[in-house]
Amino acid sequence: MKKTSLLNTIWICIEALLLATLGVLTIVYAKNTKAWNVIGYITGVLILIDGLLRLSLFVLTRSLNVSKLDLYRGISEVTFGVFVLIRPEIVVSYFTLLIAIGLVVVGVVFFIETIVANVRTSENKWALVASYLLSAIVIGLGIVALIYYPYDLSRADGTNTISILLISIGILFIIIAIGVVINVFLRKKKETKESQIIDEKIAEERSKKREAKQKK
Prior knowledge:
0% strand; mainly alpha; 84% helix
């Protein structure tokens, strides 16, 4: 049990390290079109490593604590990692375009949902205003991203939708990685403290039983 817990902790830290590495490299090469394929290759390698390690963890532990979901996720990551290595350009060019389109779609759906909520229910006026404003901002960001998206990738050097999104994603990856590591150590510290309390209670109960036997 403890061995599996330790393996999971080490595994989560490795994932966080890989994510932080990808974040740093994404920021460094965000404005260099010649290096965008490199970002794709690195992403593919990291996803592949992640998937292989996950499969190895599943096979080696053979524990109930490692669910079949981890097996399916490992297979998916290995498959996607190999695909990205074959077509590295999808990571930067197509993924960033997908995000830009996604912003518009999410903004529009959120806007429609707010209108429906406004008609069906009598929500707080300020909450509705905030919802309309947020949806308008998201739609606006998506439209701006589509306008400044470099559809001709041969002239995509400098600041544009792709470079800004790459830098933003890189920063987000680093923040998430740091947060994951901090969360792991805090949770580990809490579990250790709880384990110590349980051990102390068990020791105290045993001590009381021994004292009771001695009195008899």
